[in-house]
Amino acid sequence: MAERQFSIAGHAFTSAKLEPALYLVSTPIGHLKDISIRALETLAGADLILCEDTRTSAKLLNAYGIKTQKASLHEHNEVAQAQNITNEVLAGKAICLISDAGTPLISDPGFPLVRVAAENGVSIIAIPGASAVLAALAVSGLPTDSFSFFGFLPVKKQARLNRLSDLKTHLPTMVFYESPKRTSATLSAMAEALGPDRQVVVARELTKRFETLYRGTAGDLAAQFHGATVKGEVVILVAGANKAAQINPDEWRDALKILMQELPLRGAVDKIAADFELKRKQVYQAALELKDGK
Ligand code: SAM
Known about the structure:
The protein is an alpha/beta fold. It has three domains: 5-130, Tetrapyrrole methylase, N-terminal domain (Cobalt-precorrin-4 Transmethylase, domain 1, 3-Layer(aba) Sandwich), CATH 3.40.1010.10; 133-241, 2-Layer Sandwich (Methyltransferase, Cobalt-precorrin-4 Transmethylase, Domain 2), CATH 3.30.950.10; 244-291. It is 40% helix and 20% strand. A hairpin with a 2-residue loop joins strand 1 (5-8) and strand 2 (11-14). Helix 6 (157-166) packs across helix 7 (183-194), helix 10 packs antiparallel against helix 11 (265-275) and helix 11 crosses helix 12 (280-291). The longest helix is centred in the first third of the chain and has 13 residues, at 78-90. The N and C termini lie far apart (84 Å). The structure holds S-adenosylmethionine.
């Protein structure tokens, strides 16, 4: 293949020369076809591709006939290299950053480079695509309107338990990356720290041949995975804390009492039920008791 070319299913395409910039290019999280045409054009049209591991990325780049020069940028050299790479972009080069899988910087190298590039006024362009966090969240069946991504939990047992205990009252859906060898221990820690009834989803090998979703309570999944050797990559998702379970009853009753002086009874009940995510019947009963001076 000639310079700046790439191929899809045997058909060759040529990329235009790119504007100088740092391009953050997402690559697949498993299935080689999960890459955008724009990502291929960008990788083929760049002067240099910074890879977390050049051998890992060679598989993807070879599959699409991309011959762009490669260099390594990984957790051990990213701080030292950040200014040099920024200078190369400032001197007119188009440089791509990719990681072994998914979106660079998401539990992967790249943050020091992007920070230095931003401080130096370099244009930083996202070429978005796959990331395990969003793929797992979308298929989990857990609420997606509000979620928090925590990357990897601490490896040490007590630190992991402490971190999870701190999250016991966290309301949004929680998303964690985890290594297969710690999955069983982490599920047990979740059952212990968050309670055995908390809803959990394990998303394994997304987009790959053995893609599997396990849904259940923390207690059930901890038992199911106990002592098991998990094969492949996993994302663990945990339902947020139940808001109603955390509210001090005095808090909403006090608010109801005040509101009943301002609004008709039904209006006050509706507002408190909505604001505190409580059952209307429960609030209505409390309103009647307050009205009767109980
Ligand atoms: N930058 C990547 C991204 O955007 O998803 C994540 C890199 S992080 C080093 C690797 C972790 O991502 C794995 O340990 C696993 O938790 C998750 N992961 C990556 N690919 C996955 C897949 N196909 N299925 C499930 N989890 C995956």
